[in-house]
Amino acid sequence: MKQLELLYSGKAKSVYRTENPAELVIKFRDDITAFDGEKKDTLADKGSLNAGVSIFFFGLLEKNGIKTHYIRKIDDSTMVARNLTMIPLEVIVRNIAAGSIVKNYPIEKGTPLNPPVIVIDFKDDTHHDPMLNDDLIYALKLSTPDELRVIKQIALGVNNVLRDYLDGRGIDLVDFKLEFGKKDGIIYVGDEISMDSMRLWDKKTGESLDKDVYRTGLGDVITSYHRVARRIIDGH
Ligand code: C5P
Questions:
Q1: 16, 25 in Cβ contact below 8 A?
Q2: How many domains in the chain?
Q3: Is the pLDDT of residue 1 over 80?
Q4: Which of 8, 39, 56, 144 is the most buried (most CB within 10 A)?
Q5: Nearest alpha-carbon partner for 197 in 154, 167, 231, 162
Q6: Is the CB of 199 within 6 Å of ligand 1?
Q7: Domain-embedded: residue 231
Q8: Quick check: CB of 120 below 6 Å from ligand 1?
């Protein structure tokens, strides 16, 4: 597998072309950002910790019949993924109220959301990722009604798999963000599923085990990521 030129560099990952047009190389970097890129750092091991957890979750989803872009691992921070046409939506599933829903609406942090709440934002940095609704998604031609129905169905399926798995590890899945891509009419889960894209609370102590540790500046992010990655992957 030859890694060719850089196609895209996001806030925490770089995507490279390969000699196979159907496959991309995705490298998880040690960069971490928050608040629309206002807070930035580079933290050793962060890339490999998020890559490890993402690869583990993609494997778990595939075992449960959910299609993802993951193909194989190259090294601790790099994977090969399907080359998809990405859909610029950030699909957020919320099981417990936290973060922007608490900031923007009269709902108390920690309130259980049953059924889960799906919120979809437009992945567009220049407009600061505004929230969409179904009509806006169609007006902006971001997806068709059929695709959106499938996207929401997959998002809820992912939620069931991850929530049950994490529950068994003593962790509450508060919320998480997914991105999707298409290839030959099939919709796949893309991007990453990591501590950067989820809220995870220890069931016993309520402690945050995710990027909120960085956002709030309330602890050592890498120690926290190491601990939760071990808990997720190895179960201890
Ligand atoms: O900020 P907010 O509360 O809307 O985030 C909901 C979830 O989506 C959180 O788990 C957060 O980490 C994730 N998210 C993300 N990338 C974004 C926005 C939110 O991974 N651009």
A1: yes
A2: 2
A3: no
A4: 56
A5: 162
A6: yes
A7: no
A8: no
State whether 195 and 182 are in the same domain: yes
pLDDT of residue 121: 98
Q: Answer yes or no: do 176 and 93 share one domain.
A: yes
Tell me the CA–centroid distance for residue 125 and ligand 1, in Å.
Answer: 14
| pTM recorded for the entire structure | 0.98
Q: What would the mean pLDDT of 101-122 be, rounded to a whole number?
A: 98
13 lines ligand 1 (CB under 6 A): no
74 and 170 in a single domain? The answer is: no
Q: Which of 118, 163, 197 to mutate to test the pocket of ligand 1 (most atoms within 8 A of CB)?
A: 197
How far is the centre of ligand 1, averaged over its atoms, from the C-alpha of 65 (Å)?
25
Same domain, 145 and 42: no
- Does position 194 have pLDDT exceeding 80, yes or no? yes
Token output for 142: 């971001």
